[in-house]
Structure formats: structure tokens, C-alpha cells
Amino acid sequence: MTIRDMVDILKARVLLGEDKLETPVYTACCSDLMSDVLAFVDEKTVLITGLTNPHVVRTSEMLDLKCLVFARGKVPSEEILEAAAEQGLVVITTKATAFSACGMLYEKGLRGVPVPLEWGAEEA
Questions:
Q1: Is 118 inside any structural domain?
Q2: Counting CB atoms within 10 angstroms of each CB, which of 71, 80, 99, 122 has the fewest?
């Protein structure tokens, strides 16, 4: 899947990075807790979030993310967009909720970041 495919699937609006829409994406994560993103993401991916503060851009930089998807029609401030532009991020917004956006992308083949689903004996 490419970022352009994501834009089409989500009926999204491109806010930044129109020239990078052919970039392939293989995984996505969805969270408003950047600590969770930092804990579970270790590969280039797409972040779906409703959070529009500077932490999103800092997290993206630390993880070398490809694209930020802002759910619920949220649009980040110019300051956030400028910081994202400096990183070369693609930024899009969709009116879909984060849950719906994940479902639509999953249905079309985009998968989540792999995490172990088994409970270990020490966690029981």
C-alpha cells in the first residue's frame, strides 16, 4: 500500500508531503499515548492519532516514521506542520475516527506493528 492509497481509502486531505504520496507503507500503529508508540514501534510505519501536539512530531522523528494521520478531522497548528516538514513527513487528516481509520486500512491489507500476543507465565 502507498500513502496515496491510504489517502483514497480514508478520504483524507493531504496537509503536507504531496510529493511523497507514492511512498510504500507496510505497518501502522494507532495511539494517543506517545509512550506506547515509543515502547512498541521499532520500524518505519504510519502513526494514526488524534493528538496534535509537539510530542507527536518528536516521536515521529525518534522513530523515523513516514506519515502522520490525524483522525476526527483534526488539523495540527502551523508550528506542528513546520516541524513535520523539516522531518520530511507526510501529514494527512481524515474525518474518520482513529478506530474506523484503522479498520478501513486493515480491511485493505495494511497491518499493525507486530507485537507478541501470548501471555507469559510471569504476567499471569
A1: no
A2: 122
Specify whether the CB–CB gap between 114 and 30 falls below 8 A: no
At 50-91, the pLDDT tens digits run: 999 999 999 998 888 999 999 999 999 999 999 999 999 999
SS3 of residue 13 by DSSP: strand
C-beta separation of 119 from 47 below 8 A: no
Residue position matching grid coordinates 489517502? 7
* C-alpha distance from residue 101 to each of 18, 19, 33, 110 (Å): 20, 22, 17, 11
Backbone angles phi, psi at 51, to 5 degrees: -85, 130
User: For the domain that residue 30 is a member of, what is the CATH number?
Assistant: 3.40.1390.20
| Phi, psi torsion values for 86, nearest 5 degrees | -60, -30
**Phi and psi, residue 70, nearest 5°:** -95, 120
Query: Which amino acid would we find at residue 123?
Result: E
